[in-house]
Amino acid sequence: MITETTLLKTNEENSSAKLYLQHLFGLLCFALPFFSINYSKGFYFSALSLLIVSVGYVIIVRPSANLSKQEKWLMLALVAYPLWAGIDMLVRENWSWDEFKEPSRFLLIIPVILALRDIKVSIHYLYTGLIIGAIWAGSQGLYQQLHLDVYRANGGASHVTAFGNISLILGLLSVTVFKAFRKNQKLSLFVAIFALSFGLMGSFSSGSKGGWLALPFLFWIIVDLSDNPTYSKRFVSLGVMLCIALLAYFVSPLVQNRVEIVLPAIWEFFLSGSLIDGSIAPRLEMWKASISIFFQNPIFGSGVGSYYNEKLGLIDSGLIDPKVKVFVQSHNQLLQSLAEGGILGMLCVYSIYATMIVVFKSHYLNHKPIAVAGIMLVIGFIDFGMADGIWSINNAGTFFAFFSAILIGISSHTYQSSTAN
User: Fold this and answer.
1) Tens digit of pLDDT for each residue in 66-81?
2) Are 379 and 218 within 8 A, CB to CB?
3) Could you give the 3-state DSSP secondary structure of residue 109?
4) 301 φψ region: left (φ > 0), alpha (ψ -120 to 50), beta (else)
5) Rg over CA atoms, the chain
6) What is the pLDDT of residues 91-122, one digit of tens each?
7) Are 337 and 327 in contact (CB under 8 A)?
8) What is the model's pTM?
């Protein structure tokens, strides 16, 4: 016979287990941004641990899958991209686990989203990881550039582009702490500005120009944190960004060198077709190759992972400069998705971005800081993808997938709690 004492003991054990899980998920949400570009082994271990714990939670607890309409579209997009990629490779008989790695990440984050929707995670863990991660990244960038005399700092990341872009994201997303903790506004504002400064220093020390392209869009969006986001405030924000950019230009020789070559390289490319630098003009040439490949196969593309071989064919035909032979990908996510997947493949890729934006927008009322952070993350990576195949960089692709899952899960949990009340 079940006694009242037994029931109380069971409830206490359940409460204790739930509290333990909340702290465990919280620590993993802290660890992901904290290690992201600062210690690669810690980052991948954190992502793997979050996946394992989430799968275990979903199997054992069986959380409610009462998804909103926006979340259902997101889940469809997360499945559609790897499904399309897998079918494409099987039909063309060129299966490659290495090529499937990128789309498969979006299947892996589904249990992470479902788990975090169900369990309450303190945002203190998330923001602590963001802020310390940004400060650590900026410190590493400055140390490597000023003390070790490294031309382009890469912190503890596996790729210099990932370091610069994610450092920028960590710094800018840290600003949302000001809105999240309004009771301590002065302290929150100081911490936000401090973390932002270090995140920007990490970005500038890396010389990753793709990240800099995102700055105007991210400074525009960040104004959404205010109670009354007017156009006047947005233009003031852009003015602040311009001042920061000018300061970085005049202080950093690396930034000067990376910026000053842009216009001459573009001018010479369109004037004579010459590739006078190792970054801008080669990108333009690779984009030309992507467009050519796309027009040959506009609906279904040339096949997942086929860009390099297709480009070699164009080089052999004399249509593309041989100097870009060394580059494996086209350094533009949109154009590469069009070249390899045609319109169908591009829609699969960008439906993930689009549905994430819709989900975060739907959470503006219940948890604006996290929702704005999510929008900034997505828009940032769309912009990063204009200069690189950003998901194909393992560090960056894994960060985007798992960190977006964290933000979606936490904001969705808050939304469910607010509607339940």
Assistant:
1) 899 999 999 999 999 9
2) yes
3) helix
4) left
5) 23
6) 999 999 999 999 999 999 999 999 999 999 99
7) no
8) 0.93
